[in-house]
């Protein structure tokens, strides 16, 4: 029996958390794998994993300083005695190393879901943490998983990791039932994510301004919330887009939101393999997105979406207006769904991780 412990924060319900939930849900199917999960917050991820029948331990990071958090984690790891510890994000990487790697035989794996903000804009404390994380990943972890090619490059170039310890495993999702696109007098273009600077939703409002100046029958929506909401509301009002641009807030069930769209838009400054794009494509939506990060590994320009090489709103607007052609929109949407089914399924993702776990567990220490 291969014992695998996942360590994650669980403070949010965003792309990384959805990926972890999907992965654990699929790994349950392997009868020679025993799963356990350690989360640092009691939140939606904990509830979703428990609903799968997988045991979840919570060590609340808001109630412990790092030293007690470390000791509780170490005791739990010692009790579970996992063969594999799979960590996600910086603090979890550090806990995995200190609690499971030092003096233990557990194999350490991390998955990097995206790139951090530039260290130039970080304070000295954040830069120190970043350096520690890079050292641990490059010298103490057995396997480094990047969800995209640019992240694998970060492991090799910034963390100085042995390329043999680095691999690329794309995220995957469960395919929803297909629903035929609707025909109506207007179309809806939308996006989903947290309202943080990296998502650059101010650009999406600029895009909406360009589009609605040329076609009043296109509406815009964003599902999500965050600290930049007041800024976006001000910008929407400034451009008199109140009737054409709606902020839908947090959606517990995203399926109805995607079903209500005709086009999906991403405006991020950088991305790994965005779960929201995969979800949109799985619902048969063509995607208009910037040519950055792992997005270029998902979308074939002109086939299942459009990649925009600039951050000019008029360049995004041109493709959105082009997709007002129903036949083109349907053709590209079907191609997008087919690609997810063939290359980005949750089953395929889990199989790749299972094979990696097995390979590492059987590797001589």
From TrEMBL:
Molecular function, one GO term: glycosyltransferase activity
SUPFAM superfamilies linked: UDP-Glycosyltransferase/glycogen phosphorylase
Domain (Glycosyltransferase subfamily 4-like N-terminal): residue spans on this chain: 15-174
Assigned keywords, A-Z: Glycosyltransferase, Transferase
Presence of keyword Glycosyltransferase: yes
InterPro entries the record matches: Glyco_trans_4-like_N (IPR028098)
Superkingdom per UniProt: Bacteria
Protein name: Glycosyl transferase group 1
Organism listed in the record: Desulfosarcina ovata subsp. ovata
């Amino acid at each position: 029996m291969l014992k695998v412990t996942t360590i994650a924060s669980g403070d949010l319900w965003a792309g990384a958390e959805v990926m972890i939930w999907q992965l654990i849900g699929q790994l349950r199917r392997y009868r020679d794998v025993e799963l356990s999960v350690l989360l640092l917050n009691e939140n939606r991820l904990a509830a979703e994993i428990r609903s799968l029948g997988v045991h979840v331990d919570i060590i609340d990071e808001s109630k412990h300083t790092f030293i007690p958090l470390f000791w509780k984690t170490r005791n739990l790891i010692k009790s579970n005695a996992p063969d594999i510890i799979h960590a996600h994000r910086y603090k979890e990487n550090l806990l995995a190393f200190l609690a499971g790697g030092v003096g233990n035989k557990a194999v350490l794996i991390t998955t990097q879901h995206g790139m951090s903000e530039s260290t130039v804009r970080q304070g000295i404390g954040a830069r120190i943490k970043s350096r520690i994380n890079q050292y641990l990943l490059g010298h103490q972890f057995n396997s480094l998983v990047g969800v995209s090619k640019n992240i694998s490059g970060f492991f090799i170039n910034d963390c100085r990791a042995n390329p043999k310890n680095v691999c690329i495993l794309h995220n995957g999702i469960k395919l929803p039932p297909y629903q035929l696109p609707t025909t109506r007098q207007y179309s809806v273009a939308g996006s989903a994510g947290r309202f943080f600077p990296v998502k650059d939703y101010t650009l999406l409002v600029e895009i909406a301004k360009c589009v609605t100046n040329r076609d009043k029958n296109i509406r815009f929506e964003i599902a999500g919330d965050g600290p930049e909401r007041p800024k976006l509301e001000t910008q929407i009002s400034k451009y008199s887009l109140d009737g054409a641009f709606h902020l839908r807030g947090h959606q517990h069930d995203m399926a109805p939101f995607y079903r209500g769209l005709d086009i999906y838009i991403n405006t991020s400054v950088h991305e790994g393999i965005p779960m929201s794009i995969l979800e949109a494509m799985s619902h048969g939506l063509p995607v208009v997105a910037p040519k950055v990060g792992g997005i270029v590994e998902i979308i074939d320009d002109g086939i299942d979406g459009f990649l925009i090489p600039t951050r000019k709103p008029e360049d995004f607007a041109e493709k959105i207006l082009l997709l007002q052609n129903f036949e083109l929109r349907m053709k590209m949407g079907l191609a997008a769904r087919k690609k997810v089914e063939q290359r980005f399924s949750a089953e395929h993702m889990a199989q790749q991780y299972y094979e990696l776990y097995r390979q590492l567990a059987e590797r001589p220490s």
